[in-house]
Amino acid sequence: MWTDKELRRVLMYRLMNHINLIDFGQLLCHFISGFFPIFPEITQRSRFFSSFVGSTVNSLWQAMFPYCCVLSISRILIIKKKMDPNHLNWPLWGILVFGWMFTITVWLWSWLGMAFVFGHIGWVYDFSMWSSRYLQVCCFNILPISLEKPLSLRPFS
User: Fold this and answer.
1) Residue 102 contacts by C-beta under 8 Å, 6 or more apart in sequence?
2) What is the pLDDT of residues 98-116, one digit of tens each?
3) DSSP H helix total and E strand total for the chain
C-alpha cells in the first residue's frame, strides 16, 4: 500500500493505513509493557516511562474507534452512491477531528497526570492522582458504544 501511488490516492486506503499505523504503535507499546510484569523494577524506577507507555497504548486504542466508524460509514455511503470515494464528507472529517482531540486529551491527562499506571499484571487508573477525577468522567461518558463496563472505571487496587 505504501509504494503503489494509485492506492495512496484513494482516501479509504489512506484511512486503512492510518489504522495500520495505530495498530503498529499499539504493538510496540504492548511489546515494551510485556516486560513490566517480568521485571517490576522497571515500573518502580521509572513511573514516568511506564505511565507514558500505558497512556500511549490506551490512547491509540481509543484512536482506532473514530477511524473504524468513519471507514464503515464511508463505505456504506460509497456503496449507496451518496459519497465520492476520493473525498470525505465534512461530518466524517468532524468525527475524525473530534476523535483525535479526545484521544490527545486523554493521552496528556493520563500521562502527565500519572493516572494510568501498571498495576499487578495490567494497566489501571490510579484514582488517587489529581487527573483521575476528570478522566473517569470523560471515559464514562464517551464510551457508550461499548456493551461492557470500560476497563478505565475499575478502581486502583
Assistant:
1) 62, 138, 142
2) 989 988 887 887 777 766 7
3) 6, 2
